[in-house]
Amino acid sequence: MIQSSLVLMASMVQGHMESHAAPADNMKWLWLIPILPAIGFLFQVFIGTRSLPKPVISFISCGVVLVSAALSWVAFFQVKELGHAIEGSLGAWIHIMGTDGQPTGNLGVIVNHKLVVDQLTCIMILVVTNIAFFIHVYSVGYMAEEKRYARYFSYLNLFTAFMLVLVMASSLILMFVGWEGVGLCSYLLIGFWYEKKENAIAGMKAFIVNRIGDLAFTIGVLALFVAIGTKTGVWTVDFEGIKRAIHEHPQALSTGGATFIGIMMFIGATGKSAQLPLYTWLPDAMAGPTPVSALIHAATMVTAGVYMIARMNFLYVMTPTAMTVVATVGAITALFAGTIGMAQNDIKKVLAYSTVSQLGFMFMGVGVGAFAAGVFHLFTHAFFKACLFLGSGSVIHGMGHEQDIRKMGALKSKMPVTWVTFGLATLAIAGIPPFAGFFSKDEILWKTFSTHALLFPGWVLWLVGVAAALCTAFYMTRLVIKTFHGRAMWAQASSFSGGGVNLPDWMDEEEEKKREHDAGRGQDESSPAHNLPTDESVLDLGKVGKHGPSSHGPEDAHAAPHDAGHGHDAGHAAGHGHPGEPHESPTSMLVALVVLAAGSCLVGFLGMPHWWPHGDAFGKWLEPVFEGPHETKGGEPVKEKKEGHEESHGLEWGFMLLSTAVALAGIGGAVYVYSSRSGVPAKDFAEKHHELYDLVLDKYRVDELYDATVVRTLLNLNEVAGRFDNEIVDGTVNGAARCASTASKGAGYFDNEVVDAAVNASANATQAAGRKIRRLQTGNIKDYLTFALVGGLFVIAAFCLFLTWPDLYHRVFGGK
Amino acid sequence: MKFTDHPLEHMLVLSAILFCAGVYTILTRKNAVSILMGVELVLNAANINFVAFSQYTRIGGIHGNVFVIFVLLLAAAEAAVALAIIIGIYQNFGRVDVDQADQMKD
Q1: Contact of A289 with A390, CB cutoff 8 Å
Q2: Which of A516, A586, A695, B3 reaches 20 to 30 Å from A38, CA-CA?
Q3: pTM of the model
């Protein structure tokens, strides 16, 4: 019996069924947390889109999320007070009778509309509701000019609702509802400006790539359900039920089975959380509005995979193979995406690859058994990455929808608040103490180094992680320098405002120097493909979705001496709605920036090393979730945490210093390359190793590889299937039709040639006879008279004949 | 001498000659008026037969003579109608040649 979930959600007061003897009360009000944004969604869809004034729409949308956030805090304090999970059930949702007739017999299952808030969920709902609220507020300013304003907020509300269902769900099935729901909202919001074909395609790409992962995820869930049910007779999809079943029946799941299930679920996570090899949709997802990128594609939805693995930790600790796969994929993704990020020129693309890279760190953390560290990085990352995205949105807004960092620069004085918040978030992500990212990343690296959960020593992955951290510091510093410092490329490349912009004096001098410099190295105008892009190509580069090997300029396109851009068409600039000069964003945007930047600075202290006074509050808070019954199991469970405690603090101090040094090295390197020497070394490198540089710039051409292999194969398969359809199936149908047509043609021929011919022939004969006989009817009275006379004479002659020879009469007419 | 001294055969031969002359006229003449005249000859041939048989036999008494009177009457009426038709033909065709008036055959 499957009922519409919305109907049940609305009927909060109906009776309920408890499937387990839950210790806690049934707190139905927990459902208000996801339902309020859902109500906001319905309101916007049915009422808001009918031209309500924008302030009303904003108020409702932000308001419902704010109330949800407040309720999340209530739930948090309740969990804190009670010390155990709280739950709210609305009764049965799916109830399938077992094949043996028992309600929970063979293959029988009851799934409740039940939300559970434990310590892990607490963190997730606080992150989701609070960051969602600030991003709603930010969107009020960012989307102020948008014509589909209510629709945008309805999607944001719907996303918040589904994300809350995802993290609060008590069972895998209900979680999957949220899992798919956020995917839907992601699709809708990536393609929000669907008038542009690239955006619509990016949305579809995200959706389709996620389907691959979701298929594997579904297989994993069903395999887990069947495996546990068959072995223990407990048919359940509840997290709690599965955990208890595995705990009570240690042999319920073989190591091989757990490995299979773990890897299948992880494939689902690679789709949702953009890991190798399914990460390609996330950079394209930047086609959506920037607040969406911040909320969905940085802070919340993409972390669902990490959350899922943390939630299923009792399964993963049973299988070192799956753990190794998770950690290795995470580490490789972190480095891989980090290197790509170093060469991108679109401000949002850099952040997108940064997100992929940081998600890799999180998977590395959960993969080595440091679930708390992984979730902690998820937590801190939500703050600083949301702040970075919102900062980039502020820049894009201020620049009049310009995203190419080569056309920015020197925005520091124009957008001071954005600069400060962006800078703080950069320090956080780069891993400078005491900002948030330092503690979480350091924790992950330390746990990776000291782990024994993997099939090989942890320092291998640790090296990869350190390299990725170096990349992170480097590309983030590069981004900050090219956006906020250096020369104001916008004043130059965008002489869009007519002749109104007066270039400062120093600009000319610098250009002179640059010219000389280029000439001295023989790089003048002779190799335009690699040195001096034309004005038009510079303008084109920044457009979203326009990528491909040929359209990239060199690293430092701003080295190109523009001729004050005389060739620019004013229409192009006007189309972008350029204001004359970059400007600071409205207050509603800045509020969100400041709050998130403050978070980036402060939340790290929740996860101080455990030997610190009051340290590791975060890890201790999560202990009930991660140190479940599996610790008591005798077999292969990983006891990484316990062993970690015994390591000497000195070594940890050393690692902290090393992490800091790595971060400083990255920052310093970027400052040296892009600030002190204004990008010359990067350009040199790009020229010297231009094949390598192009490879990185083209994102290792993974998209092209997929196009060439998977997509091409599928298209070929389509073609074969199409040909089969056209030639075999259609051929059969057409052949039958042709047979019938031939037969009927034969019948028609017979009809025409034989039947009709007979009919016509008789008609013709009659007509011919008539034509002959007609000659008798001359119309001339004398002819008729002649005939009559001849006839009369004939009768007389016969009379005379018969009178003369009476025998003759009898011989002719018979009788006697 | 008496009318009846001549044998009946003479009367019949006269009648036959008149009839043949009338038919010949009808068949050979193109002029409608001539044809009408031929018709009169044929009618009078028949009248001679009626009168002759009435005089030379006892069959029917006076009946033969009465028939002749009827025939004369009818011939007069027929001549009147026929002349009217001939005038109509003349008005339509500009002549009284009956060979021309064959439009009714189609």
Answers
A1: no
A2: A586
A3: 0.68
